[in-house]
Amino acid sequence: MSLVSTSNLGKSHVAGDQAGNNITKITNYNQIDGVKPSQVNRLLKLLSDQISKDESMVGFVDDLQFFIDNRDGETVVGLKQKLDFCGRGAAFNDAKKKKELFAKLLMRFERFSSAQQLFAYIMAAIHETFDTKIIPSTSSLSPQEIDAMIEAEVVDKIMSEIGDGSDHLTLNRTHIKGMIYWLADKCYVRWHCD
Fold it and tell me: What's the pTM value of the predicted model, to 2 decimals?
């Protein structure tokens, strides 16, 4: 003779979920605006909040300080020298203007930690793409092919991630190229192999 016990769980009062076995929960996030969540979007929203609340800081966040400090150990130092070394000297005046445009933008937003983090995030993407894709290709590709690679792998990808920007900060292709030249001046970007 076997004993079978039956329970009516429907009348039970349990805090939380109730089941006779495993419970699987799925959370769906609806993106009404079609914008993929990213660090860039988060930082732009934070920047808007910091500006509206006038939350400012003095100094630089560590991620940006990394790029502000000149990189040691490079054989060709400075933007003009780098451009001259790889046969791009004719681009110096334009490169200098773009670098200065970005430097002014950086100065205008340097008191907001979110803007500093945003600039550092973009600079890190530029730096890593140059180190892993651009520089290794410089010995086998023409300057025009390198420029096309920079447009596709750096500028286009960053502009895609930035999207519409924000009410307080809009970055364009010239700003991104200015960052490239600014990083070259600090020895984080180059157009030649060692």
Answer: 0.78
Q: Name the band, by pLDDT with cuts 50, 70 and 90, for residue 37.
A: low
Q: Which amino acid is at 50?
A: Q
Domain that holds residue 67: 61-185
CA angle 177, 125, 184 (to 5 degrees): 45
Angle between helices 173-185 and 113-129 (to 10 degrees): 70
Instruction: State how far the Cα of 42 lies from the Cα of 47, in Å rounded to an integer.
Output: 9
Long-range own/partner contacts, residues 87-94 (CB < 8 A, 24 or more apart): 87/143, 88/143, 88/191
Within-domain flag for 96: yes
**Domains in the chain: how many in total?**
1
Domain contains 137 = yes
Separation CA 119–CA 131 (nearest Å): 18
Assess if residue 54 is contained within a domain: no
Is residue 38 situated within a structural domain?
no
